[in-house]
Amino acid sequence: MATPITGPDGANGASGAQICLASGSPRRRELLAQIGVRHSVQPVDVDETPVPGEAAADFVVRLAIDKARAARGCQAPTGGLPVLAADTAVVVDGMILGKPRDRDDGLAMLGRLSGRSHQVLTGVALIADGLERTALSTSRVRFRRLSAAEAATYWATGEPADKAGCYAIQGLGALFIAELAGSYSGVMGLPLFETAELLDAAGIHLLGSAV
Ligand SMILES: Cc1cn([C@H]2C[C@H](O)[C@@H](COP(=O)(O)OP(=O)(O)OP(=O)(O)O)O2)c(=O)[nH]c1=O
């Protein structure tokens, strides 16, 4: 059985973790640390293939639940910390874009996003005291037009290779974003408003009181 590991930011320091984050994403660790949640980290590996005909909103919430359920290693040694997980997808033309498989796939994604709007969906799941709670964040992002040369240069930076939709709002990808309606943290991988609501419902009150 896998053992929980401490986040690189020491987020579960001397006073102990409040939750376990079932994720290998450094972005999710950063975002959780931003709102002061002490956490251990348990990377998980689940099948991220959409079921044929599955709506994107259902897909990201289902995967968030699958990831949280897969983090069983979080539970045993700690006596059962709440487990948080998330999944992010970009949706355009009714297609769900996950992480690019390779350069060609990544450049095709950037070409598809160029000069128009797309949706970014992030599902969040929290399992605490045997209860599964979920939330969904939906944002609309409008890209300016990108030339093929810009997309190729962007790919070569390495930044987009492990990001849904082949860009990072928190990085150079910001250069493409003409407009955002929704949640910056949701696009980045963990919507903090919705996450705080789930934590609150499970009895973890940030700033010391119910939100
Ligand atoms: C759109 C976008 C996505 N992303 C990232 C967030 C996620 O890490 C990733 C989407 O892939 P996910 O499969 O949601 O997550 P992951 O595999 O990176 O991590 P986990 O271990 O939690 O499953 O894309 C950004 O960092 N910035 C962005 O602007």
UniProtKB/TrEMBL annotation:
Its EC number is 3.6.1.9. It comes from the Bacteria. The active site is at D87 (proton acceptor). One of its GO terms (molecular function) is dTTP diphosphatase activity. One of its GO terms (cellular component) is cytoplasm. It is an enzyme of class 3 (hydrolase). One of its GO terms (biological process) is nucleotide metabolic process. Its cofactor is a divalent metal cation. The record marks R27, T88, Q170 as: Important for substrate specificity. It holds the Pfam family Maf. Its main location: cytoplasm. It is found in: Cytoplasm. It catalyses: UTP + H2O = UMP + diphosphate + H(+); dTTP + H2O = dTMP + diphosphate + H(+). Keywords: Cytoplasm, Hydrolase, Nucleotide metabolism. Belongs to the Maf family. YhdE subfamily. HAMAP family: Maf. Nucleoside triphosphate pyrophosphatase that hydrolyzes dTTP and UTP. May have a dual role in cell division arrest and in preventing the incorporation of modified nucleotides into cellular nucleic acids. This is dTTP/UTP pyrophosphatase. It comes from Thioflavicoccus mobilis 8321. The lineage of its organism: Bacteria, Pseudomonadati, Pseudomonadota, Gammaproteobacteria, Chromatiales.
